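Internal tracking record. Fields below are filled automatically when a chain is submitted to the structure queue. Please do not edit lines marked as system-generated. If the sequence contains nonstandard residues, flag them in the REMARKS field before resubmitting.
Queue: standard
Priority: normal
Entity type: single polypeptide chain
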Amino acid sequence: MITVTLDPIITNIGHFALRWYGLIVVTAIAIGVWLSTREAVRKGMKPEMIYDIMMWVVPGGLVGARLFHVLDHWSDRFAADPIQALYVWEGGLAIWGGVVGGVLAGILYARYRGWPMARLLDAVAPGLVLAQAVGRLACIITGDAVGKPTDGPFGLAYTSPNAVVPKLGVYYTPSPVYEIIMNLTIFAIIWQLRRKQLPDGALFLIYILLYSGLRFVVTFWSAYKIIAFNLNQTQLISLAVLIIGLPWLVYLLQRRNPTNSVI
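SYSTEM-GENERATED OUTPUT FOLLOWS
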């Protein structure tokens, strides 16, 4: 059992609070962009393509991540004070919302520019999942996205009044730690697969399917609100992605010409 004593706020400058959450999220984005650019160049694309598309993907991902979080916690947190929905710096980003928002923004911009979207998705897949792993470090410090209270053998308790856990001094299931391990495992798998002769778009589908399956399981230890069928928002989205994505991946891998794109 671990007690987290680190204050989520690094320092206060007037009315501005510099938080670990924002610093880590910015670092995660920078790592993701750097690795995505490297992979794009390896695939024969210009690095400027990644820089340009990230100007749309990053805002789209942040908006989607915050929107999904607000919708999931509307009744218990934001309905009474809707203005809190804008307080992104205090924590509260839903990963699935970030993936959906970022990918949709990227697809729209790539279509507009006439770029090979499937190949771009393959290029960003390793950087995206690595950024997800780094970003979850912010949740550990802030107390955001911890799971249910636990008696052990592994739990996180918080002492800082700036932590966003339901109650200080209570040990909670360390869901962000499990997700970091999950994301690093996915990263290791797709990092090895990225040099295989896969159809364009297959690597991204492998990433998203692995993420969906593992996140569905890990989220059983979360404290997310149940939506339907005794499942939470994250699990329902994961199931939908698995149902759509698995047949799509099978179709891609069975195609005779592995260089053609269907995304």
